[in-house]
Amino acid sequence: MSKQDLHSVAVLGSGESGMGAVRLAVKQGLSVFLSDGSAIAEAKKDELTKLGVAFEEGGHSLDKIVAYKEVVKSPGIPNSAAIIKEIKAASVPVISEIEFASRYTGAKLIGITGSNGKTTTTLLTTHILKSAGLNAASAGNVGNSLSDLLASGAAHDIIVLELSSFQLDDIDTFKPDVAVLLNITPDHLDRYNYQMAEYAAAKYRLFENMGESDLIILNQDDSWVVKGAQSSPARIQPVSVQGRVLGHGAFSEADCLILDTEKEIEVIPTGYLPLIGKHNHYNQMAAILAALEVGVSFPEIINALGSFKNAAHRLENAGVVNDITFINDSKATNVDAVFYALDAIEAPIVWIAGGVNKGNDYSQIKALVQQKVHTLICMGKDNAHLKDEFSGDVSVLTETLSAAEAVKAAFEHAQEGDVVLLSPACASFDLFKNYEDRGDQFKAAVKELKDVQPKMKQI
């Protein structure tokens, strides 16, 4: 359905994407109705009233929703939900907010997805573009919706989109000019019938509308990723940390990244890179290739790398106390992310892990734990899965019920030169509001520890 034919839209959900879609729809002169199965915050209800938008809360009225020509649904609502099935049965199209918003911009789009590293790569790509003087912005799963960005009225030449599988589930004509697929590892499988193939298919949707003039940047070392681009007519530039790539692309070799584009070959010593770890080599190579594709020069990229600061809770240095470094990797909510964290750290490790187990298979990190971790601090209400898996692999295993307790216990068992790594491998909802709250409480506990250490030494 073209935007010229669309005169009304119903929006499901009053979260970031839903409210953004409402604002953009109003800006475009569409008749809008918002329906939320839960309560709507008072401030949002006030805004909807001021915008002249009808709404309902605490449930969905099918007759009201299907009176509109199209439905934009929150990424948090699965297609298995009864209301979605009923809307589709009434032959009313259901699309994602990304699909809806993309109709109202002429900007060049860089779309980035993957199980891990999406936010880091999105922020780095955007930072490089802005540092080079390009009129660029980021949106999507990174925090602000694309709809909200467009509704704000600010015009951008390039928009970098972080895209989750949930956002890609319901696209139709959406097409990025540059697509990045970083990796596909088990995550959110409850949404995809516990089938990796279904989850991967959602990620592959990023490519489905791309043409010969577009560019796909993908992880050559991930067989799931490679499979997804095999039928695309778009140009492909792979990235790899395991060896040279086929054709143009980027790879790591010794202490350098080698970038081989259609125009030039460049080398970046890893010492110039702002992010540690092999997993971040993938992220940084992808961001650099995307920037080169849209016209950023290599010297501009080198300059931008030197000033980049990653988002919080991703291998974030939380402080050093008595020569013990505390690293906040609270965003690592699956085993694959923990693998990257453990692999990136050279020093002996006191590992803080735990939370809500998502059916984790710890086999892929078993060897790294045996090699690098001497103490495991479990931080969760139910730590049986961690104790069963690692009690024979570490010298010390102890349980805690708060970030403050975990930091205190880690400090007691750490030696000078060690790293205390919070990399939970689990969801945070047993003890914390979310992973940000978990990371913030960890950082606060480290700061408190650092503040009291001089006093303790004087005793």
Automatic annotation (TrEMBL):
| Pathway noted in the entry | Cell wall biogenesis; peptidoglycan biosynthesis
Residues annotated as binding ATP are G114, S115, N116, G117, K118, T119, T120
Gene Ontology MF annotations: UDP-N-acetylmuramoylalanine-D-glutamate ligase activity
Q: Does the keyword Nucleotide-binding apply?
A: yes
Q: Where is the Mur ligase central domain?
A: 112-291
Keywords, comma-separated and alphabetical: ATP-binding, Cell cycle, Cell division, Cell shape, Cell wall biogenesis/degradation, Cytoplasm, Ligase, Nucleotide-binding, Peptidoglycan synthesis
The segment(s) forming the Mur ligase C-terminal domain are 313-426
User: Where does the record place it?
Assistant: Cytoplasm
* Major localization class: cytoplasm
Q: Which NCBIfam families match?
A: murD
Q: What is this protein called?
A: UDP-N-acetylmuramoylalanine--D-glutamate ligase
Provide the species name: Reichenbachiella ulvae
